[in-house]
Design brief:
194 residues; 18% helix; 2 helices; 7-stranded antiparallel beta sheet
């Protein structure tokens, strides 16, 4: 198994945004990573695309193997190309995100967070995320944790503590619980232009 950092690259209102995630994969090869990027795009079509603004686009991934050795990264675009959002309702500010928490019943590292930006006003009900949005993102991250189906073998989302100097993980655990948080989260560093 290969320990891999995967950066999901997006563009929202022509500005870059990213999610940094950690995965265990059966191998680290260009062909496998291409299959992974394609499978991730399929997952986003099913759960993400209709909920995010049409000013958001998933561009692809940057993969970094973290098993020691010299660090290098591979940018991979999905075979089917970039994936635009489809929601035409007014977009919420880019600092507003839907937070999905991950956890493991284990010693640290045992908690993780993934913030999803680019959602629209119609994703909210009474200042909370609507059930449809919560369910979609929770289901998506759960499918990543239980094993994203990839040609060549499934990949599994992990909770990891990276040591970037050693290009390795200090520790990691499988994701055992996924919870989409009903109240919008705020991330100042997702403010456009910063």
């Amino acid at each position: 198994m290969a320990n891999v950092q995967i950066v999901l690259n997006y563009e929202i209102f022509d500005k870059p945004m990213a999610n940094v995630t950690y995965w265990q994969m059966p191998e680290f090869s260009v062909s496998y990573l291409q299959n992974f990027a394609d499978a991730l795009r399929v997952s986003l079509v099913a759960h993400w695309q209709t909920l995010v603004t049409d000013h958001a686009t998933f561009l692809g991934i940057i993969a970094r193997q973290m098993d020691g050795g010299g660090a290098f990264s591979l940018p991979i675009e999905p075979t089917a190309g970039a994936l635009p959002g489809q929601n035409t309702n007014p977009a919420l500010p880019t600092t507003v995100a839907l937070l999905v928490s991950t956890s493991a019943n284990a010693a640290r590292p045992n908690r993780g967070r993934i913030y999803f930006g680019g959602l629209c006003e119609n994703n909210q009900e009474d200042s909370q995320w609507g059930n449809g949005s919560l369910t979609a993102f929770e289901d998506m991250v759960t499918s990543w944790a239980t094993g994203l189906t990839v040609a060549g073998g499934n990949s599994f989302l992990r909770i990891a503590r990276p040591d970037f100097a050693a290009n390795d993980w200090v520790g990691n655990n499988p994701v055992e619980l996924v919870v989409a948080r009903p109240f919008p989260a705020t991330i100042r560093n997702r403010r456009l232009g910063t």
